[in-house]
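Example A, followed by Example B.
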Amino acid sequence: MEGKERKLENASGPKVLVVEDEPTILEFLETGLRYEGYDPTAVQEGKRGLELALQGTFDVIILDIMLPDMDGFEICRRIRERGLDTSILMLTAKKEIEDRVTGLDAGADDYLTKPFSFKELLARLRALLRRSGHTQEPTELKAAGIILNVETREVRRNDQSVSLTPTEFELLKMFMQHPRRVFTRETLLNRVWGYHYIGDANIVDVHVSHLREKLGDKPPRLIRTHYGVGYSFHPEEAV
């Protein structure tokens, strides 16, 4: 992929430029963003990222600080010098306050320190998009008698409250956002537990089992198992 940007098709949401030189993180971000309905373009090189950013066609930029050819601070400064007000979320492996201050002084709107959870990154993206007048995520998701409130994190099914752990909530939200889409266990681990998670993939099966129990999900399943692959959500088959 080096020297080229990756553009994922079939997305119509907010346009996101991702500038990150670590291939694993880059793939994790662009795949996750596409699943969430964003329209991502991913590049590894700072100079190419700056070139694309200056076109002014993106709603938000996710910008790593430590890039091999041009650091994120310089890219951020040049974007602001051109008068562009595109929202910028900086990623850094550095935890020193000075680095955070430098990034904000250069014109960044927010920052995340690696390793980070994908759900936190999404929350920060939504906040940046709201500030700039964009909206992305509905307040409530509804399917099969389930009502999931994204803001209050409350879940009800058939007018009965359902108490979920934070992990169960994130799994259910992802399933409800993408009905009938098959998620592999690896994708679920990356999206809910984070790309830095190194534990056993069977943890996914345990949490799905608990989620089914709390939802009263009996055959034919609302959350369907694809043996050897993962899971998908089929609200039309719920009873």
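Example B, a separate protein, is given below in the same form.
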Amino acid sequence: MTGTLEGRAAIVTGAGRGIGRAIAEALVAEGASVIVADNGSSIAGDGGDPEVARETAKVLGKKAIAFSESVASPGVAKQLVDLAIKNFGGIDIVVNNAAILRDAFVFRMDPRDWDAVIRTNLSAAFYLINAASGVMREQGKSGRGGKDGYDWGRIVNIVSSAGLYGNLGQAAYASAKAGLFGLTRVAAMDLQRANITVNAVAPFAKTRVTDIIQPTNDAQKTYKERALKIGAHHVANLVTALASPAAKGVTGQLFGVRGREVFLFGQPRPVAKLEVATPGTLAEDLTAKLGGKFTDMTTDLEAFNTEPLV
């Protein structure tokens, strides 16, 4: 380890287990102080166990402190940022990783489950970015990070290939993760002049999400078997790199990481154009003239159903 994050203060949500814990461990190993934010709920967001955050913080040592409240409210997000300022003197790195999963086909989903997933997976990330980014901007003006300008501000949002490709029965989860990428782009634009970077990472690794996959066909079974081979430390390596000084020019980007493979995703842009001659034939023209460019209905599980580099 190089100690490239010495002096930085970080908040990692969902940091008590899985990918979040691996990220917290990697940041501390590079010298950062970290708040382990995790309310210890189930994968569906039920219940809570403050020992999850406490145990992880204890293992990480004196540079880590536990926070066991849900961050899915503006007030608690501000409280979390204030805790970082009080204990570490500021906030430089935010990793929005916390997420819950309540899957159902769109025609069967309980709207209350939709609301819970959107609140935890998308709104909570906005609340924390909202609370932290203003502080980061003021830190830049006050000289935190040195005389050459503030380049310590780093925000990384953990998204999902489900939000890019779609997946059966994951309307709420995929919508939240797609929205989180949209938030990434706008936040990157809003904060660019302040030298605060904002990026998104879609991870492929063994997590509680992959553990509960119930394969319905051979492709899904193979995907799960491969995913269970991939350690979360690979995701942590990429997030730590994005938080480093060397990544100050990387912002507004969408990455994927699967073992030792790092993907740079393209972002939606027009791929074809159609001039409307007769509105009455528009539907036919869409198929005849643009159909060859249509995006297929491949799910994310099918798209990445190849052997990973581990």
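On Example B: The beta strands are 9-13, 33-37, 64-67, 93-96, 154-158, 197-204, 254-258, 261-264.
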